Amino acid sequence: MLWLAALWVVGFGMFWQANPVRVMPTLTEVGGAILPLWRAGVGNAILVSMWTLLEAILISSALSLGLSYLYVLAVFRFPLISATKLRFLGFTGLITLFYLATKDGHILKVAVLTFAITVFLLTDMLKVVREIPQERYNLARTLGMNRLRVVWEVVVRGTLSTAIESIRANAAIGWMMLTMVEGLSRSDGGVGVLLLNLNRSRMLENVFAVQLMILFMGVGQDYLIGIIKDVVCPYARLGKAKI
Amino acid sequence: MTQLNERREIVLEVSGLSVSYDRPILRDVNITIRDVVGRGQVVALLAPSGTGKTQLFNCIAGLQQPSSGLVRILAGKELVPVQAGMVGVVPQNSLLFEDRTVYANLMTAALLKGGSRKEARTRILELLELFGMNDAALQYPQQISGGQRQRASIIQQMLCNSRFLLMDEPFASLDLLKKIEVYHQIEKIALRDELNTIIVTTHDIESAVTIADTVLLLGHDHDAGGNIVPGARIQKEFDLIECGLAWHPEVATLPMFFDKVNEIKAWFPRL
Q1: Fewest 10 Å CB contacts: which of A117, A191, A211, B248?
Q2: Which residues from chain A sit within 8 angstroms of residue B87, using beta carbons?
Q3: What is the residue range of A46's domain?
Q4: CB-CB under 8 Å, B95 with A143
Q5: Which residue in A has a C-alpha nearest to residue B93's C-alpha?
Q6: Do A67 and A216 touch, CB atoms closer than 8 A?
Q7: Average pLDDT, stretch B169-177?
Q8: Is residue A242 over pLDDT 60?
Q9: Which helix (H) or strand (E) element contains residue B217?
Q10: ipTM for the complex?
Q11: What average pLDDT score do residues B242-248 get?
């Protein structure tokens, strides 16, 4: 299958390079911009952004998973479901609240990213917890488990692989929001700030070179979370269809 | 003096059990199961679809509170109200914890029962051997066959609940050879302890008569106009020990076996 993927990548590269509609720089122009950018310190900017994102992913994962597990208690259901609706909110106005509530730029960025990832991850996780079949709870109860143990075995352990998969899917939102979020406080730097600066000066080949790097970082992040899932939940790989 | 197959003290009693939601599902269900001398016993609960079999099943397992009535089981020397964890349940899809191996599933169950890890290991290995599951012990549930899942599920419940086991549709979609395999598994459980009681729900009349000592028919009453009265209850009880049809390997070859199967079949449309 790897050769087929490689074929698609090569095909896409050729199409990009040869595309007669010149709305964006060619592949060689973008490729040629990578090395100078690297020498100018884009690596540092990526590290700054990665650190910000990692913090946001870890906090939002802990928050979303913890909150979703509370769904088993009827008293929390309404506020939890309501919280998922916050994903429809725009950031205008909301950002001011974050500005007022946070002490420095870094915390502000982590807070906004955490909020954005959490509302989506919580939506996914609540669906997972809601869809646990009653039979699974019954199994735990027939074995004589107390309520806390039932929640641990069925809700926490039983949904772990799906939880990691949800984190994997929703962590990507962080990269998408990076430019907007890092634009809120530029003093820390980061790849989002770099993109904004390059875009303002219309250096499109540089912009797309950075975008390409972000894409690779995102794919790497996806792959890494996949490996974590395989290590933590080896059973999740079993029984998957091999086409 | 007690004789083999003689019925003695009550081991499970369902009295006046009713379950209603917006309409009655079960109405005044009464079941009395007595200990059979010399071996464990199998009770088959036959019911057409939609008669509240699952609700009765859950009430007997202590997983659901009935609207009224009581389920009591023998614990020590007296009958006590049933609670979740006192009766083992093997559902139709033979649930196991998918995130751990068969052995780890069994260890979880055994440790919940109490005792040391070493004792648990000894019991698990003994039951794995008894059910021919040694090879599957280190596999995950997703890696084993449906039959092996069922056996693992039985062992898991046996480790936790020593006396009572409910099996939901254990013969569903099985060919004859697989059914015989399941008969033998049930027989193994029954033979392990005189007080073991296995309640099997099924639509399969022949399997029920083959394996059971008692067959209970759950169904609806009909009014004078032939209309169904809401709320199912036990319509008929067949004591197969009394009829000479207590389980043994050749039971299905006896002429009276077919008579009993036909008698029950004749009852079915009335349920």
Answers
A1: B248
A2: 142
A3: 27-234
A4: no
A5: A135
A6: no
A7: 82
A8: no
A9: strand B214-222
A10: 0.84
A11: 80
